[in-house]
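Problem: given the chain below (347 residues), write out its structure.
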Amino acid sequence: MRYFLFIILIFIYGCNDNKSYKIESENNNSLLKIVNDKYKNSSSIQIQDLKFKSIAPAKEIQASGVVKDMVYQDNKLYAATDNGSVDIFKDNLLVGQIKVPAYKDDLYGENKISTIFSFDILDDKAIVVCSDKTSNKSPYLYQNGKFEKLSINGTIVKARFVDNEKVIFGLLSNEIVLYDIGKKHEIYRTKVSESSFADMHLDFNKRKLAIGVESGILYILDVLSGDIIETIDNINKDKTFRVDINENLIFSANQDRSARIFDINKKTYKEFNAYFLVYSGAISPNKDKIIFSINEKNEFVVLDMLNLDRGYLLSGQKSTPNIALFINNNTIYTSSDDENIIMWKIP
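Solution.
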C-alpha cells in the first residue's frame, strides 16, 4: 500500500507547472510531503492576533462605471471602467475622460458600451484593452485623440508600458508578449506555464515582471529577454489574485486566504493569514508597508513591516476589493467591483 501511495503522489505532483521540489519521508509512517527547497518561512502571522487602528477615508470619489484598472501618472489618477470610459481625476476632481466608442453587436443588432479591462499611460500615449465588435479583449494604442487597433493574437488580460515604444502584455493563455508599437511587431512571446494567467506587475525600473497564475506559482521574468529568472512554487496553495514587485520584494494576494511577501535576495517569505480570500494588495514605494484585503466586509489592512503593532484598518469599500494603489508611501487609492474609489492617508 505504501508503494502505491508513493506512485500516486509522484504522478500528481509530476504534472505541476514547475519541477523544483523534492519529496521527503516524514518519520516512519511513510507520510509524504512536498517541500519548497528554496524559500524559508521567516514568520507566519494570524491577522486576528493583531490590533488595528481604524482610520476614516480621506476622500471618496465615484467613477462613471465599475472600476477595472487604475494607474497614476503626473498627479492624475486614471480609472478604467466598464462604462467605456477612462475617468481622469486630479486632486480627486474629474478633469477629463478618454471615451472608447460604442460598437454594434451584430447578433442582437444593438450598440454596446465597451468594457475597458486594462489601461496604462506614458507621456502622450495610452494603451487600452477593451471589448469591441471582434473580441472581448482587444488592444488599442490611443494617441492624439485617436484609437489604433494592434494586431496581437490571444486574449489579453493586462497591458503595461515598458517605455515609449514597447508594451508588455499578459495573455489568458499565460503567454507574455513584448510588443514594439512603433514597428508593429512582437519582440518575443514567452509561454510562462500551463496555468492560466492571473496578474502581473512591473518593478519601478521596468526591467523585471512579477507574474501570478491560477496554480499559485509566482514567476519573475526579465523584461528585455523574456527569460524566467525566478520561480516561487509550492508555497501559495491556490490561485494568486494580485501580485506586486518592488526591487527584491514580491507580494502575492491569494485565494488560500493569505497574503505573502517574498524576499528574492534572502530567499525567505512572511505570510499573513486572513479571515477570507485575499483579493488585492500592494507594497509601498519605500518597501516598509503592505496593504491587502482581509475579510468578507471588503476591508483592507495596512501593516508596517518593521513594527506589526502599527496596523491600520481601512473600511469603506462596498463590494469585492480589486485594486490597491500606493501613490506615495502614505497615500493609497483602493477600489472594488463597483464605481467607488477611496483615498486613504496613512499616519
